[in-house]
């Protein structure tokens, strides 16, 4: 059940700091016999419930400067070879450097599962670096601060996602078939994902979390949903110890609901970390495929509601909004129009988001809400063939080609869907770094409309073509 991880990245991104945190080496230092530590290649590491081994790459940079690149590359390749999973570290504070891409290429070529770690995320200005990290095509970057120990729960979840529950926890893998970062198809021979595209599977349980501000009506909603048609509750065999989900059925469809009560059992360390982050909600969100945001329709949108929505979108999950306590509203039609308009305006990243008026208390609207959940889930799983995408691209390039930057026209060559859940596309172009964000947004909006993907985050990564 144990696995080996290698921490890879250019110098100074924080590899040793992360290594020390995982291996707890600072604490162990006093007990170590001098000289032994240096030679030991593999250290025991822990990340909450994950016990694994981390390959020591510290000291690689200690070689004389002249031989640095070659030596580093060789050592990196050896470490990758030995590893089951790669922690690819970038410095979110500094942003992407050419060396990051060089190392990323080596990692990508290895075909090993990768967790993309955006370190120094606590630093001011790290947001830009975090976004840039997407461009490496190694999947979703996990923001952490190795130095301050922030983001470790997310790192843990990302490892489980990349390697699978079987490898990391010894659990049946079936319930999560989210494409791991490593499966993002990048490189010379991008396969048509359609070839191995599984059809949308209605028999798999659909995983849902319910989030929202205190008093919005989350508990009432959950009880209304589950109480009515619950077939099965409580921990399942095998995952009794840390069960976090409740199984139920809605109109014949299997559902899994994140059990917030289970969230309260936390280790001291985790509690401490969560004060620094929004990890509580994050755990629920990461568990889920679809996240129901419960809003109290009698209280207007607040910043906190948007922050929750933002988090869901950033995590690549699809939100569905429930305007709750609709039984208290006396101008329902007008208010619904207003609320929907506002939602669209405030959440352009998920244009077309499903937003349904409900009363958790009376049960009205719950069928429509669940219909919206299922519909959004289908969209979240959607796949577009490379053929259709490139016919679409031809049309786009004919009508609205990318702008010229510094006198040279940017060229877009090819687009392919590299990922589902949520849909993710790789666009090959000349000079990705010069491509304006506005054009990328234009592509996303157009993709959404052309292939009917309302209400889910859509990702586009740019890749160099030569
Ligand atoms: P490595 O050479 O890539 O292994 O990087 P190190 O672990 O030696 O870290 C390089 C520098 O970045 C050191 O000065 C660290 O203190 C600093 N550093 C590491 N992690 C973090 C972090 O999470 N936040 C910030 N702000 N600095 C960090
Ligand atoms: P939570 O903190 O988000 O879990 O919210 P609760 O489910 O505990 O609900 C907070 C309060 O709102 C309780 O007094 C509920 O009875 C009330 N409430 C929840 N849903 C509705 C609804 O649809 N209509 C009305 N009128 N009250 C509701």
From TrEMBL:
Record keywords, A-Z: GTP-binding, Nucleotide-binding, Repeat, Ribosome biogenesis
UniProt cross-references to PROSITE patterns, sorted A to Z: G_ENGA
Binding site for GTP 1: 9-16, 56-60, 119-122
EngA-type G domain segment(s): 3-167, 206-381
Record GO biological process: ribosome biogenesis
A Pfam short name: MMR_HSR1
GO molecular function: GTP binding
Residue positions binding GTP 2: 212-219, 259-263, 324-327
Family recorded in the similarity comment: Belongs to the TRAFAC class TrmE-Era-EngA-EngB-Septin-like GTPase superfamily. EngA (Der) GTPase family.
Subunit annotation: Associates with the 50S ribosomal subunit.
PANTHER family documented for this protein: GTPASE DER
Its job: GTPase that plays an essential role in the late steps of ribosome biogenesis.
Name of the protein in question: GTPase Der
Organism: Aquamicrobium defluvii
Lineage: Bacteria, Pseudomonadati, Pseudomonadota, Alphaproteobacteria, Hyphomicrobiales
């Amino acid at each position: 059940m144990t696995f080996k991880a290698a921490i890879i990245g250019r110098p100074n991104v924080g590899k040793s700091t992360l290594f020390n945190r995982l291996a707890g080496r600072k604490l162990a230092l006093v007990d170590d016999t001098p000289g032994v530590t240096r030679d030991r290649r593999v250290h025991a590491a822990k990340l909450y419930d994950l016990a694994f081994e981390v390959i020591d790459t510290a000291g690689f940079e200690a070689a004389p400067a002249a031989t640095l690149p070659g030596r580093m590359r060789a050592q990196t390749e050896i470490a990758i070879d030995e590893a089951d999973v790669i922690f690819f570290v970038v410095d979110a504070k500094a942003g992407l450097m050419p060396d990051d891409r060089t190392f990323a290429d080596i990692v990508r070529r290895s075909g090993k599962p990768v967790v993309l770690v955006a370190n120094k995320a606590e630093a001011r200005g790290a947001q830009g670096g975090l976004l840039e990290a997407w461009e490496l095509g190694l999947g979703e970057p996990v923001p952490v601060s190795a130095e301050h120990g922030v983001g470790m729960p997310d790192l843990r979840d990302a490892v489980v996602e990349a390697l699978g529950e079987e490898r990391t926890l010894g659990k049946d893998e079936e319930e999560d078939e989210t494409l791991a970062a490593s499966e993002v198809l990048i490189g010379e021979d991008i396969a048509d994902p359609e070839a191995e595209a599984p059809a949308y599977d209605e028999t798999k349980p659909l995983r849902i979390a319910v989030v929202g501000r205190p008093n919005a009506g989350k508990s009432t909603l959950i009880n209304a949903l589950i109480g009515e048609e619950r077939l099965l509750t409580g921990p399942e065999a095998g995952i009794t110890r840390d069960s976090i989900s409740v199984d139920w059925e809605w109109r014949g469809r299997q559902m899994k609901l994140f059990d917030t009560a289970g969230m309260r059992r936390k280790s001291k360390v985790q509690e401490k970390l969560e004060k620094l982050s929004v990890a509580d909600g994050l755990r629920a969100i990461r568990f889920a495929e679809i996240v129901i945001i419960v809003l109290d329709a009698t209280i207007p949108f607040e910043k906190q509601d948007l922050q929750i929505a933002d988090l869901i979108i950033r995590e690549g999950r699809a939100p569905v909004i429930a305007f709750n306590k609709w039984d208290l509203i006396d101008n329902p039609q007008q208010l619904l129009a207003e609320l929907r308009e506002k939602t669209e305006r405030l959440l352009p990243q998920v244009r077309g988001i499903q937003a349904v008026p409900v009363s958790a208390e009376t049960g009205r609207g719950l069928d429509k809400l669940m219909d919206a959940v299922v519909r959004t889930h289908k969209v979240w799983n959607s796949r577009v063939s490379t053929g259709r995408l490139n016919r679409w691209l031809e049309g786009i390039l004919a009508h609205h080609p990318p702008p010229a930057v510094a006198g040279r026209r940017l060229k877009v060559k090819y687009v392919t869907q590299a990922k589902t859940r949520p849909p993710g596309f790789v666009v090959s172009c000349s000079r990705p770094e010069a491509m304006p964000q506005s054009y990328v947004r234009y592509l996303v909006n157009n993709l959404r409309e052309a292939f009917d993907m309302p209400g889910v985050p859509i990702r586009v990564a740019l890749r160099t073509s030569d």
